[in-house]
Here is the input.
Amino acid sequence: MMAQQPKEAWKHRSSWVLLALRGGLLALFLLPLLAQGYVLYLSTEAALFGLAAVALSFILGHAGIPSLGQAAFLGIGAYALALSVKAGYPLLLGLILAPLLASAYAFLTGLLLFRTHGIFVLMLTLAFGQMVYSVAHKWNSLTGGDDGLSLSGPGINPVILHLAALAALTVAIVSLRFLLSSPFGKTLEAIRQNEEKTRSLGVPSFRFKLIAYVLAGALTGLAGAGLALHRTFVSPHDLFWLSSATLMVMVLLGGSRGLYGAAFGAVLYTFIQAWVSSFTELWGIFVGLLLILAVLFAREGFWPLLERRLGGERGSAQG
Here is the structure.
């Protein structure tokens, strides 16, 4: 009985520490509101990339779907918003079209993707993404080609845009955590661990993976629309596979098995890149070294490492 009490007390303390950590992550996004200027700009960018990174973490860490084609979702969302604004339609319509078109693309490509598995899925996502990049790059009359498209119409207040981006990120994390704790999420986890076994039990793994992929596409498309508003410019170069690789790095730095970790990775990457590039053009080397450290000493990512160090061994698989 006496041994049980310290155990319960430690569990209670661990829960409070994890809650404080997540509150601290929220503070990282809120504090720039006091600074304004470039810091606020970076924080908004981190929140929007965080939304895309959370979507990638969802399919990679919980559904076992590797992807190097997330840039296509970002680009489709960005161009959907830019073209609708350019055509004179309400901003809200563009914000609705962005996730809808991105999820439609995810559905169509997913019908082919999930007829295979493993490294083949990864390569197909890359191939499909590069096809979208090529279309955007060559279709000058629609996308502006190398010149891209400028958004001079909306003119949203930076503070409002930042709060909207943070709200979207928060709602995405809370909703996905709820989904992962549901029977759907448990089934996804089972598919990730052993797809052959779950299929043999009659589980339609193709359908579950397709739904997860479409949902991730919608969230990433919304992030792309937000980035278009934030940067007031859309370019085909945003659809290049390096943008997908950047999202993958964010997820690996923060933690591929945790949604909070993916958001933390986006903050880490965005601010480190901005800081190092302020005094050298070789910022990629620094980020590469950080990724090597993560692989060697924090394979689950830096966020789970923080949770274990500060909150004990009780880690959150969905955190």
